[in-house]
Amino acid sequence: MAKINILDSSVFNRIAAGEVVDRPYSVVKEFVENSLDAGAKNITVEIERGGKDRICVTDDGDGIERGELRAAFLPHATSKIERAEDLDHIHTLGFRGEALASIASVARVTLRSRAKGAAEAYEIRCDGGALGESAPCALGGGTAIEAEALFYNTPVRAKFLRTDRGEEGEITNFVSRFILGHPDVAFRYLADGKLVLQSFGGGLEEAVAAVFGAGVLAQCYHIDAIKHGIRLYGYLGKPSFAKANRTYQSVFVNGRYIVNQTIGSAIANAYGGYLMKRQYPFYVLFLCVPPEIVDVNVHPNKADVRFENNQVVYGSVYSVVSAVLDGNAAALDFIVGAKEGENGQGAPQGAAAGAAGGALSGAEPPADAFKKEGEARGQTGAAASQKISELPNKEETASGEPIFHEYTKDIARLQSTMSDKIGAEPGMEQLHAYAERPYDPIVFRDSAAGYADAGAEEAPPACPDVFAENKRYLEELERKAKQQKWILDNAVFRGVLFNTYLLYEEGDDVYIIDQHAAHERLIFDRLKAEMDARTVVRQPMLVPYILTVNAQERTFLSDHLGEIEAIGFDAEEFGGTSFKISAVPLDLQDIDLGAFFADLFAEVGSLRGIRLSELLRDRIAMTACKHAVKGGMLLTDSEKEKLFSMLHGDLGLKCPHGRPVCIRLTKTEIEKMFKRIV
Asked: pLDDT tens-digit profile of 475-492?
């Protein structure tokens, strides 16, 4: 029997670091959370080379006494809790007491601090878990903690870090969330000496403007609602302000940034009737719930929480968001400044009307606009919202205090009134997305080859492929289709059907050509050949196009800027969160740049094993195909002849969407249709 070993602290701290500190952003997260828990009102974050070389967080918080500097580095040492009962009432961001010990085991950490009222500051160093002695240092107040050479003693972990720009993007993303989640705290964030983000602690409106720009506020509804003892407030984007990915979504539970499926599904389902496929809402929302009904200790880096009753949380969030979007009367109580006469302003338009161009500021129409917009959504949605609004809220409880457990008895009624409006349970979106993925037999063939290539001693047992015959048949059809090339030396043009289909006759065969599909394929082939040969000609723009992005999109573009330029774009960074597009491929001089980059950003965070250059080529080619002649467009004789000659007789082609360019009908097939022959 193997001997059971008691691990040394230097070993189990490194193991813990693998859970708590997986990348540089984790270090920034833990340091900033400690600063916030210490009551800091001014926090500065500095990084070098994406945090790999240096991470420094300085604050003006309470500081640490000299006698406790060494204890701060000990495992499971924390000032946040004292007893096991405190875990049921967590009011701080940190509480485990393992982060600093884990970080210090894989980096060179220097901690400087001056406690409030102390005469001088002291510092202590910890090099890979080896603690030094405290000594006096220069520091005005608060705490400054610095981590250098992250993962210097764990080269395996360092090898899997992303590029400097990639790690910087992740840190920028989290600093943005800290700015949004703590709008009363002033933040300064510098990367390689360059100021990236700054806020001044002036409130949520200023924080949103600092992260996303002031123009975002006009595209959002400012809400503040209390439902079933849960307070929900923040900014909801109008349906017209949809985004191409989920990176513009932020949810905070009791001040903690999380990614939670229950809340995310509730908001997504509320927006479901307003957004097109692959569009995502913008929101910055805060949930305030009693600490005893939420468990924040379910994830090593506290990225998610668990609620005592997910259905109550789901129903509360869904009812508020759907009421605002539907524009019914209940939204008057949810939208800040919406009540008639408040702040000298009238009642605002409903969200549905606002999405069509209404503004949230200035003089507003009467309150019955909410009812009209609710009726426009149909009786089902209105009835559901009305039923939900009848459930007890904070003001209607008998005791005057919201008790979360009192509302669980209403779940059955809540679900029955919402079932036809919700349309899907939380978590079903991912299941439907997986079910819609096309079947690709190549995946299984490549997987089997992967075992052989890996040289595994025991490959999984081969299962009989019941679709083998079908696959061989389909592959044979595809092979024949690729080899098919009709040479029409003596074809005679016979006319046009519906201004869409060109008719050609040769011998006993009739060829029907889809003019749009044919032109579409020709453009696709030409543009792809030019891209492969790197002969794309750029068209300079008279006025450059400024593309504003967030931190993750900026990282995505920066990592692949060379590939984008190789395709034919002239793009460069233009400020902290912007890119300047100065030229486009000549073939795409009429391209809608906003729509193109929105399609590209839909892949942010989802590209795994896909060559971006191929993806971009296809995206641009599809955009170019929009310039092809359309079905129903009347072509001149010269245009018909030119299109036919460009095909070079290769009528077995398909358009990029898979539709055939040409169909051949033989005389025999036609005579069978008319029963001339049997």
From this structure: 776 665 554 555 566 788
